[in-house]
Amino acid sequence: MSATADLVIRGGIVVSADGAYRADVAIKDGVIAAVGAPEAMPAVRETLDATGMHVLPGAIDVHVHFRDPGYPHKEDWASGTAAAAFGGVTTVFDMPNTIPAAGNAEILAVKHRIAAEKAHVDFGLYGLLGEDTIANVPALIDAGVIGFKLYMGNTFGKIPSPSTGGMLEAFEVVAPTGKRIGLHAETNSIMERRQTRLTAAGRTDPLAHLASRPAVVAVEAVSRACILSEWTGARIHILHISSADELRPLREAKARGVDVTGETCPQYLMLSSDDYARFGGIIRVNPPVREKSNQEPLWAALIDGTVDMIATDHAPHTPEEKTRNDIWSVDCGFPGVETQMPAMLTAVNEGRMAVCDYVRWSSFNPAKHWGLYPRKGAIQPGSDADIAVVDLARSWTIDDARIQSRSKISPWHGRAVKGLPIHTLVRGRFAMRDRTLIAETRGWGRSVHTIQEMPKAEPRNTDKTMSAIVRKPDANRKEHAA
Length: 482
Ligand code: DOR
Ligand code: ZN
Description:
Blueprint: E1 5-10, E2 13-16, E3 19-22, E4 24-28, E5 31-36, E6 44-49, E7 54-57, E8 59-64, H1 77-86, E9 89-94, H2 105-118, E10 122-128, H3 137-142, E11 147-151, H4 164-174, E12 180-184, H5 188-200, H6 206-212, H7 216-232, E13 235-238, H8 247-255, E14 260-264, H9 266-270, H10 276-279, H11 295-304, E15 309-310, H12 319-322, H13 340-349, H14 355-369, E16 387-397, E17 416-426, E18 429-433, E19 436-437, H15 466-470, H16 473-481
Parallel strand pairs: 1-6, 2-7, 8-9, 9-10, 10-11, 11-12, 12-13, 13-14, 14-15
Antiparallel strand pairs: 1-4, 2-3, 4-5, 7-16, 16-17, 17-18, 18-19
């Protein structure tokens, strides 16, 4: 190779989804130019010594809430993506429950502008798929969504959940576009009814939140979503899988060939109902952190591929919003984009999985299932130089006061972890170096919808869609006459 590279990362162990090996990595113009032995590296302007470190493809967190526009006291694109950079996360997908919600092309354009101006890492934006936004799907796609988000149940932002009829029509409309629909899979009517009863009975304690949303809430929603996906051919993604019970409908749907993927989050693997007494409202999140018996099945589902990826549902709120006495008045969610990698690498250190398993769940699979592979999700020539250089031996105690997120309160506070991202590169530029934010990368983040290539769409039952049945009066008449 003749051209001079911009940077060579020397002496580290490069990790892919299926292996880890000693190699140097050369980067030029934001792209990986070479991976291999030191003598195979081109001439270079700068080197980074990664001796003793692991060189991972940056994590792709397909589920964050950066609150911008709408809730600047909780987070914005600058603070949220700074947190991502500190967490070794190089691409984030932002949820549509901002103010206003991202349900039409105009609002999406506003979000694109804000994110492009402030983001330290790359990003995708979800469009809101609700009863009233179905007609906006084509315009939202033109405006550059990475996918859609549909709320089957109520959560922060009080976005109304569509009826099953509305959901079917929404799936019919999205199916031929090939885009994936992320689902908040909790059935609203079940939990609303239970919350009303619990409130009437005077329950305001933290565990009442869990009692209002037992796993059947997710089982019913996942099952129904998979049925509608199978019928329409719409690609779906089950967000924040929290229970062992919802794994069965997910497994069965996958076995039937439904294009459904799933994510779980560190809180469902590492926290449990035993922690409610200690954390109170701080642990309140939707879906709720559940009984400890769910943890092992969720880990096993990651290992066997039923659950495809790790995301965080990074959902920042302020201490005041998280510590109210009445659990029903506590805002749901807590930050996680910055602590996911250390928490998961701790599990690697504990021997629960190999570091390449972690890369498969945190980067390779998200890239693959969201149409970004191999530009993202791999360290190989031609891929974007999105890299987390991690020290697996570095111990750290999570301290909410010192994290980048504006939300300084979480159940991760005080947790001892081992394995820390030391440098994060986004398309070849350090966004975080030696645990320091590189302020000049504000505005470096770009929307990845432009590089997304989903496989060819495979819509089904297209002769029975809402648009087919209401648009063909002549054809119907002929059939009847014949
Ligand atoms: O706990 C949650 N918080 N769950 C969600 O689904 C939304 C999120 C938020 O936006 O705060
Ligand atoms: Zn969420």
